[in-house]
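Sorry to interrupt, but I need a hand with the structure work. I would like you to pick a protein and set down its sequence and fold. Please put the record directly below this note.
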Amino acid sequence: MPDRAPQPVDRQLPTDEARDLISLVRDIAQQEITPNAAEEEDAGRFPRELFGLLSRSGLLGLPYDSEYGGGDQPYEVYLQVLEELAAARLTVGLGVSVHTLASYALAAYGTKEQQVEHLPAMLGGGLLGAYCLSEPHSGSDAAALRTKAVREGDDWVINGTKAWITHGGIADFCTVMARTGEEGPRGITAFLVPGDAPGVSAAAPEKKMGMKGSPTAQVNFDDVRVGDDRRIGEEGQGFAIALSALDSGRLGIAACAVGLAQAALDEALAYATQRRQFGKPIADFQGLRFMLADMATQIEAGRALYLAAARLRDAGRPFARQAAMAKLHCTDTAMRVTTDAVQILGGYGYTTDFPAERYMREAKVLQIVEGTNQIQRMVIARHLVGPEER
């Protein structure tokens, strides 16, 4: 392994508290995440104990209100924490992003009573969340979901199957979108479902090309009964809640993608400055230097794009278009940069002795999750020229 240590990203942070937070995250990454990342990913082990440490360190509720155990951090800071975690191990960064996504509905749309009862445990009590929107037959067309919730007195009975659920089978709580009324987006309602509720079960985890340490599974709901006090928002408001959550979640994916790309660039730089051919380091060859320059430029552009969107969000301004752009650009960048990193390492890049091949395999999923990049292009185009004619 090359012995050239990567240089930390020079971050522009708004407060001393944020700088201390990034320092804490880097210490945790160096001491607790990176040393075990390759072995655990290869073995398909999810680091649940590590997520307990992240919870105790206040990293699972950063963008939420401190009144309920959150960190009161702006998205501009939270996303840079995600980037640092993802650079150490994507399973961890993406896991924190998904947990934050799963907590969003209650934090943004729940009643005061619901927030007081549930959020402290969700944000700082060691719990882990799952976001349950996609189904076997409704991925990009999320409004066509079939999972149903039927009212029975003061309860709701939920039946259906959710697919591609990160933390499926290990989550302590699930934010579930279910149909309570008419077909289409207006008939969907959000619910907070305990992960151990009777009738909740998970299929075997999917066998994936990357992120093997992060369990992804179908989650089944068979006559799952929850009280109306676990309905989030109004009946029929669930699809709007889901889309609002995804706008923020896409920024999380963008930050994770930049972190992964940065890790790949650091690996490529380390190798290129140590590896010698024809009597000199391969980093001295112009063709390779241009590759490294392009990689670094794409990463910086992605970082600037997701931070610009985050600052709009923090200012209370519309940011959906910019979030889609950030998700699109940053995840495409991660795919390009990780592929180039493998190329720079040559034959070694194709072996598991170096992490470059793992980075490349992991990057692919980021172009798919939380809205494929084709969907992001549709979202951006609708903001530019309006909806498509039907």
Remarks:
- The mean pLDDT is 96.
- The first strand starts at residue 129 and ends at 132.
